Amino acid sequence: DAKTTQPNSMESNEEEPVHLPCNHSTISGTDYIHWYRQLPSQGPEYVIHGLTSNVNNRMASLAIAEDRKSSTLILHRATLRDAAVYYCILSPSSGGSNYKLTFGKGTLLTVNP
Amino acid sequence: GAVVSQHPSWVICKSGTSVKIECRSLDFQATTMFWYRQFPKQSLMLMATSNEGSKATYEQGVEKDKFLINHASLTLSTLTVTSAHPEDSSFYICSAAKLRGGSDTQYFGPGTRLTVL
Q1: Using the beta-carbon criterion (under 8 Å), do A94 and B108 form an inter-chain contact?
Q2: Which one of B103, B107, B109 has the shortest CB-CB distance to A32?
Q3: Is the CB of residue A9 less than 8 Å away from at least one CB of chain B?
Q4: What is the spatial distance between Cα A48 and Cα A74, in angstroms, rounded to a whole number?
Q5: Is the dihedral of CA B44, A110, B107, B24 positive or negative?
Q6: Fewer CB within 10 Å: N-end or C-end of chain A?
Q7: Contact indicator for A12, A69 with CB cutoff of 8 Å
Q8: Which element (helix H / strand E) includes B94?
Q9: Could you report the per-residue pLDDT of B44-91, keeping only the tens digit for each?
Q10: How far apart are the C-alpha atoms of B24 and B35, rounded to whole Å?
Q11: Is the peptide bond between A7 and the residue preceding it cis, with omega within 30 degrees of 0?
Q12: Is the distance from CB of B33 to CB of B94 less than 8 angstroms?
């Protein structure tokens, strides 16, 4: 499985933007980049995903490097409820028999009031 | 996003008993459901993948006779931990997805905390 590298932890202040980096230098041409987050004692929550182009949704933005070897999850205005572990995950197309999500250690985001 | 529920949210049982955990996709029909396990301060580990009406595919190192998975319908999958022991105490999380080929999203349940005494 293609692996990702994320910082163990990051800290942010409330109402400020947060940029969460992810390196995936061994990404294959058909791997999608997914971001999930997990609040304490809860199941993961989908945040955003992309393939090549930058993506925006109501929760966040995903900036993908031109060579696709790295990406950045952007939370435009952090709130206390954004404090969670953020996982950057690569997955092949869901149509293949090898489709699955492999969770790494993720980045623990702390948001200061 | 889609809603996935799990029941129970927590369970305490005696060593040697069996425990069943239900996972339901409430507002969509899931072609595939996944079962994960998460130990304290660790990441999620995929245990098995199940498709409706088919036998589950277990990850390496997961005992299929101990962790029985039934996926009887497009909205329900169950995980039965048979003859549970204290080392099976963990946070069990399911997810559901409608896999159509491409970038389909997995929607996760809230998890079930299992404590085996």
Answers
A1: no
A2: B103
A3: no
A4: 10
A5: positive
A6: C
A7: no
A8: strand B90-97
A9: 999 999 988 888 999 999 999 999 999 888 999 999 999 999 999 999
A10: 12
A11: no
A12: yes
